[in-house]
Write a structure and sequence with these properties.
Length: 514
Amino acid sequence: MPGDTEKRLPQARYALFLLFLVSVLCYVDRTIIAAVAEDIKGEMGLTDGELGFLYGTSFSVLFALFGFPIGRLSDLLPRTRLMAAGLSFWSIMTMFAGVAWSFGTLALSRIGLGLGEATANPSSHSLISQYFPRKSRGRALAVYLTGTSLGGGLGLYIGGWMVQNWSDVCGSVPIGGACEISGWRAAMLLVGAPGVILAILVSRLREPQRPNLEKGRLGDLLLREFSASVPPLTLWAISREGGSVALLKNLAWLALLAGLCTGLTIWTGDSAQWIGFGIGLYALVSWITVLKIRDRPLFYLTYGDPVFVLALAGFTMLACISLSIGFWAVPYAIRVLEMPPADAGLYMGLSVAVTAGVGAMTGGFLVDWWRKFDQRAPLWIGIVVLVGKAPFIYLMFTTSDQTLFLWVFLIQSLFGSLFAASAAVLVQELVLVRMRGTAAAAFALTILLVSLAFGPYMLGKISELSGSLGGAIMSVYALAPFCLLCLVLAARQLTGQSDAIRLARARAYGEPTA
């Protein structure tokens, strides 16, 4: 009722403010490691490959692994309490990084960060959709998502400032022994603490009532959802629902991935990286297998559709390029260009904060305009980004001028954020209305898992072997021809497709006609 909506508007705005802060902290805690990476490396004697693992693989595997079931949890449990639990957990794990004593404990903190942050988006999106009426829901979600760009920039700024200035300001901190800890450790403790307090406030938010909420068999429902993607529960789910043939195929995938990752471990010596990567890939394969068993129409419009698969491969490689450069650019500026950490954090953080929001909005308007003339517009925009970034990436990592580096970083960051809306729009158009939430989550989590678990580590490993961080970063563009090929082939496959064709395809695999 209009009267009820007006009375609850102040509560909704307060809730949105808290959720915005959650979004900010989510990305502060996620990205701050880029600004303090050089100090961590120096203190703990880590390699560039280990830094890449800490940023990408250790975070992304658990984030993706639990992303699907936690999304389901947000439909079954009180979302405010679920998010509060996740927020407090990842904040504590961020602070744990500040007292970590080894590579292993640092990795554990990043794993915990990924697990906790998996609760943020599903719960927040669901809450905002109920707090606000349809007419203002888009603006409310935009406010929440703005926190991601602000948080990413703040993480770089705070990290850079703390590692450079902590020794000068620690004496004024009314805590005994403050000056005995290093700047990067103080930064982790500083950014983690507010999340624990915010979690208490989030837990006290009003939980909107939801119609038709499933009750009574919570344990069975949770087991069903977690068994789709979390090993070894996946073996039970596939055997029970798909039979012996499906189980044997899954075990064959397990053996193949185990053999591949064992070989890569022997070759590189980095067991943590390849064990984590292998677990992530096996979980993804298992989830796709369960999806095919449980929802054949959805499977054949996503992982069984050449357009979806080619677009997913292309955008995954494009994200791998962007995310890898996004992480390694700050250590490069500090290590190679000898930029003061506070300056690198400030100027590159500002670039991230501004371009992430502006680029996403610009990309959204661009894809809406272009689609009026060509339904393949999301794929063409991906190609524009891939080609447009290339000269700026080359200039960034060949110049010795700090000012030029910062301006070019700003431009390439803007390019890099243009394709997010295009990918999201494409996925929505490839599936039926009832499938859009799951398809979007599958697309995003697959991209995140593969690109973050592979790109940052590989660039770090190449840097170790070559002795050139700049050359290693530019080597990520070796993916460009394959990325271009996938996007072009996806565009060719998409030509002539329509909603009617997709509906007929779904019905051929069991979609109800009514």
